[in-house]
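The freezer alarm interrupted the setup, so I double-checked each line after restarting. Inputs confirmed:
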Amino acid sequence: MCLGIPGQVVLLENAGGLRMGKVRFGGIVRDACLEYVPEVAEGDYVIVHAGFAISRVDEQEAARTYQLLEEMGQLAELDQADVDVEPGGNDSAGSKPDG
Amino acid sequence: MMPGEACPVPVLGHKQIVLGHGSGGKLTQDLVEKLFLANFSNDYLDRLDDQAVLEVNGSRLAFTTDSFVVTPIFFPGGDIGHLAINGTVNDLAMSGATPRFIAAAFILEEGLVSEDLARVVQSMRQAAEEAGVLLVTGDTKVVDRGKGDQVFITTTGLGVLERPVKISADQARPGDRVLLSGTIGDHGMAIMSRREGLEFEGPIESDTAALHTLVAGMLDTSEQIHCLRDPTRGGVATILNEIAARSQVGMELEGRSVPVRESVKGACEILGLDPLYVANEGKLVAVVAPEVADAVLERMRSHPLGRHSCCIGQVVAAHPRRVLLKTEIGGTRVLDVMLGEPLPRIC
Amino acid sequence: MKYLDEYRDADLARRLLKEIQQVQRRPWVLMEVCGGQTHSIVKYGVDDLLPRDIELVHGPGCPVCVTPLELIDKAHAIAARRDVIFCSFGDMLRVPGSECDLLTVKSRGADVRVVYSPLDCLKLARKHPEKQVVFFAIGFETTAPANAMLVWRAKQEGIRNVSVLVSHVLVPPAIEAILDSPWNRVQGFLGPGHVCAIMGYREYEEISARYKVPIVITGFEPVDLLEGVLMTIRQLEEGQARVENQYVRAVTREGNQAAQELVAKVFEVGERKWRGVGPIPNSGYRLREEFSGFDAERRFDVAAIDTQEPSVCISGEVLRGVRKPHDCPAFGNDCTPEHPLGATMVSSEGACAAYYLYGRRQKTTVGG
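Predicted 3D structure, all chains:
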């Protein structure tokens, strides 16, 4: 369970003593409660679940582990074993910027 | 095992109508097939297209009706007035017809602010002028406060088919290409962004628009257009399932080809919704012969309402009635019809 | 979207699959604990891509499915009251009680509203002082801090017309129940990433050591899931059994202290009933005594509602990963998402519904 989506904190706010903030997800902004991520600063990424930031995304850890993932992948690429998966369709895919 | 024997939970017999019956998904299908078709079955109705094509004294007329109930009545990018004209114009256009005449019936709730009604009517006037249709007859009723939701509008449309085309959901053939005229989910998420308890800020606007000139351009390019639908309630996934079922064909879609605005994607992610099931009000899905697909696509892209048109998949003979989607990472899943109203989820 | 798109990369997925194929020597049965992971697995066709003899069984990690029937009946009784605005996450609206679902209760005139955040209930309570605003507080550890904050703020601000109907369950007791089962086939777990974002994973280290089973705390995107599978398989092939954290960008060993503190102030651990499983000791949260004034069960006197579930449907076994959805004779014919007969068909997160929705209606050859 637990749909949690990463978004970027764009504004810190105080609502009657409650730490709140505006968080950007793709092209939209929603209010989220930041009470559980007291260390968070504007520009940080947080995981938001049911209107609450439940953790701050550790950007350094993310970059480090992603790089390991990519390197491991490249090592695997050198191997000749063939997997029956084709990369998906064209590159004009996916998202269009909002005007 | 006897039906019902295995269940700790009694089968929902739907003693009453629930919202899901109006969602455009599976419950709507059930209602239409088990109640309306069962009572009114005839050659025109049985086609279950968004309009009927009637032959009258040698002319071919497209005839359709549609009710508009939307909360809130004003939303980013439009209002119920725009929808009431464009929705019916589009249902006519999806047969290849030129929309000509509209009838409108208003059910107003006691207490509706007159100025709001005036705004809605002005939007209708503007949309009708842009679509080149005349509003030629109508009706008004007022119900007690609490018996309606500000305003309900029903529009009925009449159009003329000037070409010998036969565009219908049962015309898809293996090999055909599936074309989509732009980004999906804009309208549904624009409405959602204004729902109490779900509000968010962003550049999402309804895509409400009249599509008949886009269709005319496509037909100028080729008459090898087999199916046309505007994916409103239930979204693209539901429409494609209907076509697959009516034509007894399978479909294979390329998930990565489906264009979604970043803002719509963001909104769908946080609410746990799939854009393929979210409503559109200014988009069409076309199933066209493979040899003309590129030319039709090019023509679509030259139209302001089709700038982001793309091919999202093809019709296949395999697995009839099933729509398969190749996912972003190369896996495959079945794209089913929607069950009921899409609900935001936290799990 | 940053931190989503790069974890949905086809190239990376392909490479991870290659790596999995190279590492794997024997067939294995893994369980993804969390319904959100199940959802991703079927949505992206992850299971479709994995080698045939790596079997993923779906865990009980769906608070919607495991909410007991009697609590849903209580929700309906409360929602039907004229003085109540009943608020819920969208997930609970289609869950059938003994007689119908919340959408049907709404169609009969009840004021039932979907909210995105529990805090929205405070706004509603202020806006409608003449009404009782009741929130259906469901969820696992991930949602508990959000639900706790609603109660905490209501008390702080002296908002009296708010109450919560609590159905909070915990993941570790459920994993233990699975591992204690004589029919258990699960050899390794993908741990619930967002539950651990709150709780950390020290509890899972105990479980892993006690049962000698690898647990890899895993995220929710397809690349996360594939990496979680790879890490689990690698441990199994090497005969290891420890907790690893695949989801390092969001999860630390200690979890979210601030959230844990507030949850502990508002809730205490106690026995909870799980739909399709029965009562599990210390498996859920209930309101602490000092917050009992916000307990909807007390406020609306629905304690007498005690619905028994006939245990004919196999959802309990599906929840525990003992059997697969299509092992049930009712699956896909008498039991569909529109007419769910059991817990696991109830929510789109449930294993049966996920199988049904994404068309996995054919039996696959099952190893193990």
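Quick read of the result. The longest helix of chain A spans residues 59-78.
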